[in-house]
Amino acid sequence: MLDLLAQKTEYTVSEISFAIKQLVETSFANVRVKGEIFGAKRADSGHWYLSLKDENSILSAVCWRGVANALTVKIEDGLEVIATGRITTFNGRSSYQLIIEKLEIAGQGALLKLLEERKQQFLKEGLFDAAHKKKIPYLPQTIGVVTSPTGAVIRDIIHRIRDRFPCRILVWPTLVQGEGAANQIAAAVKGFNAQPVGSKYRPDVLIVARGGGSLEDLWPFNEETVVRAVYDSEIPLISAVGHETDTMLIDFVSDVRAPTPTGAAEFAVPVKSEIYNGLLTTDLRMKNAISRRLNELKQYMEALGRGIPSLAQIVQENQQKIDDRSERLKLAFENLLKDKNNCLKLTNLKPFYIKNIVEAKRENLNNLSVRLDSVSIESVLKRGFAWVSDSKFQTVYDTNTAKSSQNLHIRFADGIIKARVTERNCAIQGDLFDDL
Q1: pLDDT (tens digit, 9 = 90+) per residue, 223-245?
Q2: Contact 189/170 with Cβ under 8 angstroms?
Q3: Which residue in 29, 199, 262, 329 has its CB near the most CB atoms, within 10 A?
Q4: Domain check: are 247 and 148 in the same one?
């Protein structure tokens, strides 16, 4: 095309634009460009439009929706990245741009900056709060391991668990670095949690592990998809990523962080021999305690036995008490008979004795009769008093009750008269009626 254009003396705009486009796309079909993201904007269509800049120049770039959705790096201003793609021209503006097909963080400094930003974001959301931490079961029957199926990590974990307390181990093989690793790790955690409760394929505890490496190698364990999958896990989870000095975001969100994969195995299961020895010690202490207690009870019973008299002694003492009571009862009965006999003899010797008693009783009765008459109603009325009652012959004790009654009965010593009540200056006036 360029050769043909070279033979012409005049060109159309389209011809020149097409020739430049072909030249640029052929020469820069696959390039890696390092720069800082500037002016990033997401269109309604889902495509991203941005620029890459350095100290001197700016390169326009576009990332189509399908590629952008698959990126593991979040497009944002100020992030230093390496963009892989191809250069093409945009004829409508006589400009060129980079079509991004892959995006990765450029340099450890940028990674650390992004790591800190993500950490602060998850802290604000509460993903690292201690309230969400679950307790690791003491004796798990099944342990699920998310890691690479090859390499020293899985062998170290299996070997350590078998040495301490052998149990069932399920391995969910995944990539542990590179493109696609984060999605596989998150899918493994979700997959184990998706198993029905009580199923032999549902672990009691999970271990997510990999060996040491650079920050770039360990980066999948900082991805948002992994952090959220671990946070949502209903199964307690131990993270064991890298060496003891390496700290990934998964370590903050996991229930327990182990310094190494071997350490994760130690957190997951106790030492069987230590449990056995502990049980032996406890059993011995229990037996000794029971033996001491039985001896104490035996000594106590023996002491009680020494203080209890013999059966013969108890029977003899009670027989003696019965004999004593019988003798006293016999004497008491004889004394009673003697007293009664003496009374009869006294009566026979003095006949007037009974008469005196009768006269004394009669005189006492007369005195009581006189006292009763003195307080009777008739006696009180004869002394000038009157008895006031209402129409139902209920006694009236005060003026308020009298005022509330229309008719009154006034009883004197010689009869009863009726009175009608009228209220004048809080006094009671009545008209006499026929005597009853």
Answers
A1: 999 999 999 999 999 999 988 77
A2: no
A3: 262
A4: yes
